[in-house]
Write a structure and sequence with these properties.
With 223 residues, the protein is an alpha/beta fold. It has two domains: 109 residues, ATPase, nucleotide binding domain (Nucleotidyltransferase, domain 5); 88 residues. It has a five-stranded mixed sheet. Helix 2 links the parallel strand 4 and strand 5.
């Protein structure tokens, strides 16, 4: 496995999973490894572990794969602690690994630490609280729409089978779901109006015309 040469600045690579963080600290070409819980207690323990190893947390370059599942919450928490969280895209990481002749089976966190120290990718800016709230509302709206789609698909089968009671019940449930969808859309529209910079959030492009029309009339980037 190849490594970048020279006196590397302290850097951290973190590989995330649902339950754990695999952490590698790279300092002066020496590696220290730690496995922590992927929760608030784990993030705080990471900060204490770095302090015990005489590493300054403020401004420390921490590299993660922000496209990976279960990563954004950890990245946001570490950024709020003052660490300089950086993103490593799969393509950029693959090119770096090839150029540095890393073993194909190298630990992901090791590669991320060397990438952070050698390439020094730009700091990642956490999404604003307003943007995070918008994503939660949109996720909830998507879930309700999925339920409605599934229930609507059953409607004709009940009618064709002569199940009039079930058909009538399902019609009432669909009406209730339609009401919930409309309520969620109104909340989302009000939220976008309160926060005009959300107007061009990519997630809004996939929404119904009434949401997209109001959102994109704001004409400002999401964050």
């Amino acid at each position: 496995m190849g490594y970048a040469t020279g006196n590397e600045p302290a850097a951290v690579g973190i590989e995330t999973s649902k339950l754990q963080l695999k952490v590698v600290l790279l300092r002066n070409n020496e590696l220290l490894c730690k496995v922590l819980e992927n929760d608030l207690a784990g993030y705080r323990f990471l900060r204490s572990w770095l302090h015990r190893n005489e590493v300054e947390v403020a401004g420390l370059r921490v590299c993660m794969r922000l496209d990976a599942p279960h990563t954004e919450t950890a990245a946001r928490s570490l950024a709020l602690m003052g660490m300089q969280v950086c993103d490593a895209s799969p393509d950029a990481l693959a090119r770096f690994a090839h150029a540095q002749r890393f073993d194909a089976h190298a630990e992901g966190a090791v590669l991320l630490a060397h990438y952070a120290a050698s390439v020094q990718p730009p700091r990642w800016t956490p999404p604003s609280p307003a943007y995070m709230e918008l994503r939660l509302w949109l996720a909830r709206l998507h879930a309700i729409r999925e339920v409605r789609h599934q229930e609507a698909a059953r409607l004709d089968s009940h009618r064709q089978a002569g199940q009039q009671a079930l058909h009538a019940l399902l019609l009432r449930q669909l009406a209730c779901l339609d009401q919930q969808i409309a309520q969620h859309e109104e909340v989302i529209l009000a939220h976008v109006r309160r926060h005009p910079k959300l107007g061009l959030a990519p997630e809004l492009r996939e929404q119904p015309r009434r949401i997209a029309r109001v959102a994109f009339s704001e004409g400002a980037p999401a964050h």
